[in-house]
Amino acid sequence: MALRHAVLAALLDGEHSGYQLAKIFDVGVANFWYAAPQQLYAELARLEADGLVSGREVVQHGRPNKRVFTVTEAGIAELAAFAAAPGKPLLIRYDLAVKVHAVDGLDPAPVIAQLLERAEEAAAKLELFERTLRRLRGDLAEEEFLRRGERVGPYLSCLGGCRLEREMRDWCLATARVLTERAATPAGADRPADPAPSVPSVADRPATNSEREDPR
């Protein structure tokens, strides 16, 4: 998947400026693709040059004019070809998971702090995505919206984002709790003490040669 496909998918909802597109990415597309505003503006220019989107100037009184974009038939065909192509394996590079993996040889305090911070971020994203879901379905109950909603794709992708962030929040909190409890318990404090090694009595040890020869 390339950024162009995410931009084309976001423009399916209608005509948007680069600024509006950046807002859409922050709220609706962020759960599966991150892009900075500068990347979006550059990609829009490339898409227009390739004929996949069309742009037009909108005159605004009292404000700078803006350029808005819509997907062309060629852009729809590009999305259709992308949707039909085999998907690529998901590549995960998550530095916090690497830190947790190596925590046994490290000071756990910074890792715990980062886990709690990431849990807060996940909770904030989850709240944002849930608000987006409520806005998308309007007055309809979720089950009814999924049956007959006008645009179910953005809703389903946002549902996936909710589940990912919920799992991330729960994993971070549970992992931080385990590491905190382990740090508060000295190593080996919960294990029973090893029994003292038994020392053989004189009667148990084998007799020496001199003792066997001495009849006393």
How does the major sheet shape up? 3 strands, antiparallel
* Number of structural domains: 2
> Order of strands across the widest beta sheet?
1-3-2
Multimeric state: single chain
Sequence of secondary-structure elements? HEHHEEHHHHHH
Radius of gyration: 31 Å
Percent range for helical residues?
55-70%
Distance between the termini: 94 Å
Instruction: Output the number of helix runs.
Output: 9
Number of strands: 3
Shape verdict: elongated
Percentage of residues in strands: 5-15%
Low-confidence stretches: 196-216
Secondary-structure content class: mainly alpha
Averaging pLDDT over every residue, what do you get? 84
Keywords: Coiled coil
InterPro entries: Tscrpt_reg_PadR_C (IPR018309), Tscrpt_reg_PadR_N (IPR005149), WH-like_DNA-bd_sf (IPR036388), WH_DNA-bd_sf (IPR036390)
Protein name: PadR family transcriptional regulator
